[in-house]
Structures are given as C-alpha cells and as structure tokens.
User: What shape does this take?
Amino acid sequence: MKPRKHSQQIIDKWHGILLMVPIVLIIFGITGIPFARAVYLSFTDKVVGLKEEFVGLENYRMLFTDKVYWKSLNNTVVYTVGSIAAKLLAGLLLAVLLNQNFRGKSFFRTVLLIPWALPGMVAATTWRWMYDSTYGIINSMLLKAGVIDLPIPWLSDPNITLLSTMIVNVWRGIPFFMFSLLGALQTLDRQVFEAAYVDGAGSFKQFIYITLPGISSVLGISTLLSTIWTFNDFENVFLITGGGPIYSSSVISTYTYDLAFIQNSFGRALSVAVSVIPLMLLMIIVSRKIISRDISE
Assistant: This one.
C-alpha cells in the first residue's frame, strides 16, 4: 500500500505542476518578457522612432553625475518614509478607536473609507484645487481663522511642494492601514486582555505586550505593501505638482516619465527605473524576514 500511495503522491505533484505551466507562461509573457526588454533597453540610447544602439553602462554612468536623479531619489526616500510613518501611526490610532464600542461607529467607518475609495485622479485634482493660492479653500480657511496673513504657495514654493504631495498620499493611505489593522484587532482573544487586567496590567501595557505582538504580522504585511505602492507612486505627485517646481517634488517615477516622454530619452529613463530595483528588492527581503520572524514568534 505504501509504494502505491507514494506513487500517487508523485503523480499528483506532477499533475499540479502541469496545471501551473499555462499560468506561469502567461505571467511570464505579460510581465517577464517586457521586463527583460526594458532592462535591455536601459543599456541602449533608445529614442522614439529610431533603432536603438547598445551603449553599455553609459546610461548608468550618467546617473552618478545627474543631480536631478539624486534629488529625485532623495525625494522618493523622504516621500516614502515620511508617508508610511504618518499613515501607520494614524491608521493604528484610528483602528484602536474604531475597535471600541460607541454610537455612530458604523458611520465613522464609512466616512473614513472615502479617501481610499476615491479614484486617484479625482482625489489629486481636488487637492490641487484646494491648494490653489488664490481660490483654494485651505488658504481661505487659514486666512479667515487668522492663522496666516498671506496665502501659502503650496504648489509653487520648492520648500513645501514635496510636503504637499505627502499630505495627500497620507490622507489617501490611512484607510488601508486602519481597516487592515482593525480586522486584525477584532481577531484577538478578549480573554487574554481580561486576564492581563486581572493581573494588574494597564491599557498601555496591554497595548505594548498583547495588542502589538498580536497584530504584528498584519502590521508588517500592510507596511510592506504600502511601502511598495508609495515608493512607486506616480499619479499623486504628477497630477498635483508634476514634479516641480525645478524638480523640488520630483520622485523616481515622475523623473522617469520626464526623461521618457518629455526629453524623449527612453534608454536613460529605463536606466533610472532599473537602478532602483535593488533598493526595492532589499526592502522586500528585509520586510519578509521581519514578518516571518514575527509570525514564527
């Protein structure tokens, strides 16, 4: 019986592999081939309408002396780290609050979901109008409240344009953390909290030693996904500031667009995009190790 059972397991294994082959080929055809083509073109001087010529590492060598590239990379890191930190803290706070019992909880859940549900173009266009120095509602309210004496140039001051885009990203991303963590909070065993309370543990200690470890896996996965999305965010920055003025809010995605479609330098644009892949892989590997460690614990 055992040899027959072992043979059946082998058959089932190969049967499963054969069923996966078409899906793997489709995924490779959709993503793998274009990705390989993009990597190859990053080593060429490709422009629209002309045959590309192989230039080796010339595009990557130019990146080391490209001040706009380094500024965009720095902006991307600041944009990602700052936005993720704000979204994580605000989302966790709101999740804890919505996990309590109070009147109108369903209403607040619905209202707080709106930023996430809105199409990106609608949200960005609305915030661009709100930021307007002349007609924007934000400056109008601040002026009426006496907080400021002159309108704030949210979209034209190089010192605050990146912050302006980060605010919109945080506003849109908080619901993702909030509802992900709220779902995790609702799976925690209440008896553990009751036992901790009987033993004299206050709310703060319960949160540190019970709540956070209990939701750590969801927290890690949510942070990883949001980090990838934020790092690659194009729509929000492009529609609000376009990466300007003078590249003050430029990130890797908008600079890639600028090189490809404004300067018509596809080879250089692809080298910019490919150059950040190792950084993305490093973030994913580190995050996966942290998540795996939290789950195992």
